[in-house]
Amino acid sequence: MRSILQDLRYAIRMMIKRPGFATVAIFTLALGIGANSAIFSVVNAVLLRPLPFKQPDKLIKLWETYPQGFGTVSPPNLKDWREQNTAFTGIAAYQSAGASLQGSDYSERVATATVSANFFDVLGVAPRLGRAFHDGEEEPGRNRVVILSDALWQRRFAQDKSIIGQTILLNGEKHEVIGVMSPEIRFPSRLTELWVPLDLSPTLLAGRDNHFLLTLGRLKDGVSLEQAREEMVTIGKRLADQYKDSQAARSVRLIPLQEEMVQFVRPALLTLFGAVVLVLLIACVNVANLLLARGAARRREIAIRSALGAGRQRLVRQFLVESVLLAVIGGGLGLVLANWGVSALAILASSVLPRASEIGLDRRVVGFTLGLSVLTGIVFGLAPALQSSKSDVQTALKDTGNAGGSPHRNRLRAWLVVAEISAALVLLISAGLLLKTFWRLQRMDPGLKTENVITMSIALPAARYSNSQTIDTFHQQLLDRLRSLPGVQHAGMINYLPLQQFGVNGDVLIEGDPPYLPGQAPWAELRTVTTDYFSAFGIPIVAGRDLNDHDVENAASVVIVNRAFVQKYLGGKDAIGKRVLRDTTPITIVGVVADVFQSGLTQAPRPEIYFPDRQSPDGVKRTMSLVLTSLGDPNLLVSSVRGQLRELDPNQPVYNVKTMSAVVNESVSDRRLNMILLGIFASVALILATIGIYSVMSFTVTQSTREIGIRMALGARSFEVLKLVIGHGLMLTLLGVAIGIAGAFGLTRLLAGLVYGVTVTDPLIFTCVPALLVAVALLACYLPGRRAMKLDPIVTLRNE
Predict the structure, then answer these.
(1) In 229-262, which positions are buried (b, 16+ CB within 10 angstroms) versus exposed (e)?
(2) Nearest to 61 by CA among 247, 250, 213, 230
(3) Where would a tag sit more exposed on the chain, N or C end, judged by fewer CB atoms within 10 A?
(4) In a 10 Å sphere around its CB, with 0-12 CB exposed, 13-18 middle and 19+ buried, how is residue 579 labelled?
């Protein structure tokens, strides 16, 4: 222990003696370690940290499966699952929704979750104030109770503990506040602000075709996931046999809740974590090269210590103590950098990653940073320590010239440069692929107009708007008012906004087609729109006509379909006049519109059917999104729209106000985040690789001063000296580029799920990026080469 303290004191003295070297090494390591700590904080919060529920590993998400995929559950199936399973202590149901919270001064839209009475029991959590829901509070008439989130309790009710037992107005109806939830509980959405009981009325329990519930189960002790899966699949087959018309070809899918929440972001996070590991390795290579250069300069010191009796093991330990000390200090500085980076990441990832609000530096991240610092110190310090400790004592003591180092040591420095060029190239190519993906997505035509278009949502409470007449009257009056506003070109509505809201789909039969086998009927995305909707978005009518004011409740039922529907189900033939059957009701196709990227720019347009709002059920059209096209800046319309709404209904809030350009940008926010982060890491790698090449070539010039002087004294021209230096650096660069390209061909295949419209072996990227790296490397070689050109051979040889 005493000798280690001596080594530590000596290492500190060496750092003070050479502050320039120490500063460069520490900041290089701080960049690599800080980036790793920042990304690990995200991985820790999203992938590793357990969910804030009791025994979260026992929470299982249950889905209904069908031939086209999987989806939500119908209330009757939920009832049967509960009654027939023996694997779960309970199965809860829930769905995200929204409600108008009315106050004495204003109303606002809040994100809600409607949940079954056993929801919090299944999660294994309890409110911080009050109580959870009781059995029976799902029943109509008994479900006027509410539990507040901690955030809403603080924001709207100033943490008033007497709120328990008081009533609030939700959608115009009185609800009793029975509890306030703990701050960390925001399930099922990070936006959830209150919970209300599901209204599982007898009508809903009778409709096995009405799929709208999300379900969550808690495994019993001693029951494995495979056992539960086997039992639920058996139950699904039993229901399929019992209810052939509605349940044919349906089954059950089980997936752990935590896996369900992160399955789509895990590949991107692991890719980013792999990228920062490469950045750290490049930083380690740079510092290792610095240590090799310093070891060459310390040859006489090492030789003297060896002559005085210091063994190789003792010398290696001294060098490792010095490198670990550098790494620990770099890790401390990296932790400071990571703290800043984590704050930025939490903001950037707030709309992309689940549990983004939990991203931060906790004990696990600090421990990771400390362990990584020590490991890094050993990794980059071991090779220089072994090299420097085995120098020839007699040769080193006799050497009075420039500290050149052995050929083996020079070859090691060269191979280290090759390694960091290879790693940097892999990162640069990966970043290039993501950049090209994002560039393509930004220039994709979503099938609708985005400029000068603004959207906002309204939700009419059932208590006040209880039938189609009141809903249709409100919508018509509002649209008439909005169309008369100065600057408004078009105004329409849709129930599920493209690129922002997931819609619903259902079976649609084509009149005249032979009967379909159960579970194999055509299906389409179902939308409800008002007149002028297609004009507001600039969606062209490619055949037939648009919806008009004559398409009302008592008129002939009509729909408009998209081009994808015609291609898939009508063979691309004329669709006008054809009829589809929805719940046995024949509906005439009167128009065909162009395709719209409804589910995201990376999802091909699906078959869609647009129903007139005045021929749609009340529940479908009660919540709608306004679409307004402006002659100028659409944001200037917002206050006027709010004013018109207040005149029609003072208690009706408008929410989710966004320009369509913002909606499109948000739809690619995950890919933007990946591109930005990987681009930053690749840029850091490029800078570090450039510094590495420059430092090696500078050291080479320094150690070759005598050789260069002799060459110039014998008649070598300055240009030949420059060519010699650049040629050596270019050889290392090209070798690193060749290895990097080979590595990129293999590793970029891991990006297959993150790129779109670009192959992972894109020829342009694999040509331009290496060319860029070679150009930067040539510049890094030119600067030392230029210095070599200016050497005076007479002065150089006299000094030698």
Answers:
(1) bebbeebbeebbeebeebbbebbbbbbbbbebbb
(2) 213
(3) N
(4) middle
pTM here is 0.82
* CA contacts within 13 A on the Cβ side of 564: 17
- The residues, ordered by sequence, that sit 6+ positions from 214 with a Cβ below 8 Å of its Cβ are 61, 72, 73, 93, 94, 95, 188
Q: For residue 520, how many other CB atoms are within 10 A of its CB? A: 14
Q: How far apart are the first and last CA of the chain?
A: 44
Query: Is the model's pLDDT at 702 over the cut of 80?
Result: no
Q: Cα 116 from chain centroid?
A: 30
Q: Is 153 exposed, middle or buried (0-12, 13-18, 19+ CB in 10 A)?
A: buried
> Which pair of tokens denotes residue 213?
């519930």
| DSSP state for residue 233 in the 8-state scheme | H
| Coil/strand/helix, residue 558 | strand
Give exposure, 440-462, as e/b (b: 16+ Cβ within 10 Å): ebeeeebbbbbebbbbbbbbbbe
Nearest-CA neighbor of 264 among 47, 501, 430?
47
Per-residue pLDDT tens digits for 312-360? 666 677 778 888 888 899 999 999 999 888 888 888 888 788 888 888 8
Residue 170 is which amino acid?
Answer: L
Max Cα-Cα span within the chain:
107
Helix ranges (DSSP H) in 594-668: 618-621, 638-648, 660-667
